[in-house]
Design goal:
Helix content: under 10%
Radius of gyration: 13 Å
Number of strands: 11
Order of helices and strands: EEEEEEEEEEE
Strand content: over 45%
Shape: globular
């Protein structure tokens, strides 16, 4: 049983920064690929960043150059550093274990409550 708890969201002005954290209840971060997802009102959930066990990262085009995913195996935690935030980044952000199928990252069913990120213009 894996439980993931996201934190670090909040209200920030456009151009600002936030650092999201995802803490796992069991040791999973070092053993699995991990990803950050987001869902805005009226939109489908999308993968914004992923990281493999080997440290390879992947980003959605909309966040490249602005977001950075990282992990700390000792702390069993995944992070998402978000810089130069835009109003369109407003969404609930979730982390999850992901399964790799070629270059595709598919989330497993370990969804937490997410953390709200709101960017004002």
């Amino acid at each position: 049983q894996v439980q993931l708890v996201e934190s670090g969201g909040g209200l920030v002005q456009a151009g600002g920064s936030l650092r999201l954290s995802c803490a796992a209840s069991t040791i999973v971060v070092s053993l699995n690929a991990m990803g950050w997802f987001r869902q805005a009102p009226g939109k489908q959930r999308e993968l914004v960043a992923g990281i493999t066990t080997g440290g390879t990262t992947n980003y959605a085009d909309s966040v490249k150059g602005r977001f950075t995913i990282s992990r700390d195996n000792a702390k069993n935690t995944v992070y998402l550093q978000m810089n130069s935030l835009k109003p369109e980044d407003t969404a609930v952000y979730y982390c999850n274990v992901v399964r790799l199928s070629g270059t595709t990252m598919t989330p497993l069913n370990y969804w937490g409550l997410g953390t709200q990120v709101t960017v004002s213009s």
